């Protein structure tokens, strides 16, 4: 087993112990949208919970089974149901006998390109955790923290004993989360970010990227970034009148990898929908938006 000091770039499939109660295994699904891949967390010691089992990949499943060893798995928890997070839940449950719990099922087609995997239509939990629900094992306790925004069913999980939070895709260690309508909701996302800002977690363990050791500073920065994007949109519409999302993206994301522009457009649309709900902007009806 590697330690944090052994490697900054965790190899795919290796169990890296990052705290007394938390180990992680990186899935082999790197991309411009998932960074180095989806990180599955093993929580506990003599018994375990598995957080975000990841994609249904034979090598990743074998790595998880090896990492678990002969320890009992009390539960398999999913933060949300994008296909890079939850599909391994069912086969891992079959191998370990552990129930699948956590977020509610959600399968939804949206009308645009995604920055992440689409929804897992086969996700079928044995039970669903609501905000504040707890799951406990030998020396560990996980509490569900509802954080809708990236998806409407998104949960974070607080590890009480280490004052840590597993943040899924709500807060990532390498990039801001994409908010993709119609399920992704910018107003919900900002409310959820404020909720995290009001908490006192010492460290975040995201599904993508390294641990976040000054989480409240990062959350403040991400909220400020969203406000800056909103300001850019308002200034663009003020200068150019009724405009389409791709035109906004071309200016606002100049210098960003073009492969990410369609995903950026989803977040711009989410901002516009939020502005529409606040009576600041309105859809013209032909794909264009204007100021009210």
Which helices and strands occur, and which strands form pairs?
Layout: E1 2-3, E2 15-19, E3 22-26, E4 39-44, E5 48-51, H1 58-68, E6 73-78, H2 89-96, E7 100-102, E8 134-137, E9 140-146, E10 155-159, E11 164-168, H3 186-198, E12 203-206, H4 215-240, E13 243-244, H5 245-252, H6 261-277, E14 281-283, E15 288-291
Parallel strand pairs: 1-2, 5-6, 6-7, 11-12
Antiparallel strand pairs: 2-3, 3-4, 4-5, 8-9, 9-10, 10-11, 13-15, 14-15
Helix pairs in contact: 3-4, 5-6
Q: Could you characterize the architecture of this molecule?
A:
- The chain is of the alpha/beta class and 292 residues long.
- The protein has two domains: 212 residues, Metallo-beta-lactamase, Chain A (4-Layer Sandwich), CATH 3.60.15.10; 51 residues.
- 28% of the residues lie in helices and 22% in strands.
- The protein contains six helices and 15 strands.
- A hairpin with an 8-residue loop joins strand 9 and strand 10.
- The N terminus is likely disordered.
- InterPro entries: LACTB2_WH, Metallo-B-lactamas, RibonucZ/Hydroxyglut_hydro, Sec-metab_biosynth-thioest, WH-like_DNA-bd_sf.
Overall pLDDT, averaged? 92
Q: Give the helix tally.
A: 6
The poorly predicted ranges are 1-8
Estimate the helix proportion, in percent: 25-40%
Radius of gyration: 19 Å
- The CATH top-level class label of the largest domain: Alpha Beta
Listing every helix as H and every strand as E from the N terminus to the C terminus, the arrangement reads EEEEEHEHEEEEEHEHEHHEE
| Oligomeric form | single chain
* CATH evolutionary superfamily of the largest domain: Ribonuclease Z/Hydroxyacylglutathione hydrolase-like
Summed up, the domain count is 2
Using DSSP, what is the number of strands? 15
Q: Roughly what fraction of the amino acids lie in strands?
A: 15-25%
The biggest beta sheet reads: 7 strands, mixed
| SS class | alpha/beta
Shape descriptor: elongated
């Amino acid at each position: 087993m590697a330690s944090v000091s052994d490697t900054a770039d965790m190899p795919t499939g290796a169990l890296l112990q990052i705290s007394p109660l938390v180990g992680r295994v990186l899935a082999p699904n790197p991309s411009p949208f998932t960074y180095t891949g989806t990180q599955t967390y093993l929580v506990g010691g003599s018994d375990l919970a598995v957080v975000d089992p990841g994609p249904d990949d034979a090598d990743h499943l074998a790595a998880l089974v090896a990492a678990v060893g002969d320890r009992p798995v009390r539960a398999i928890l999913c933060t949300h149901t994008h296909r890079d997070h939850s599909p391994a839940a069912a086969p891992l449950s079959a191998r370990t006998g552990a129930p699948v719990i956590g977020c509610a099922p959600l399968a939804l087609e949206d009308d645009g390109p995604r920055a992440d995997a689409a929804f897992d239509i086969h996700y079928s939990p044995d039970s669903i955790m609501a905000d504040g629900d707890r799951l406990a094992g030998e020396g560990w306790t996980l509490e569900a923290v509802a954080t809708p925004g990236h998806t409407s069913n998104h949960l974070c999980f607080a590890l009480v004993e280490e004052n840590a939070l597993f943040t899924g895709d709500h807060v990532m260690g390498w990039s801001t989360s994409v908010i993709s309508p119609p399920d992704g909701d910018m107003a919900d996302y900002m409310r959820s970010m404020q909720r995290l800002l009001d908490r006192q977690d010492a460290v975040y363990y995201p599904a993508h990227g390294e641990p976040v050791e000054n989480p409240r500073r990062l959350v403040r920065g991400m909220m400020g970034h969203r406000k800056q994007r909103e300001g850019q949109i308002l200034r663009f519409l003020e200068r150019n009148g009724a405009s389409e999302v791709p035109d906004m993206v071309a200016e606002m994301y100049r210098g960003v990898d073009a492969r990410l522009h369609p995903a950026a457009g989803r977040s711009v649309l989410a901002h516009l929908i939020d502005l529409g709900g606040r009576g600041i902007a309105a859809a013209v009806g032909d794909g264009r938006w204007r100021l009210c």
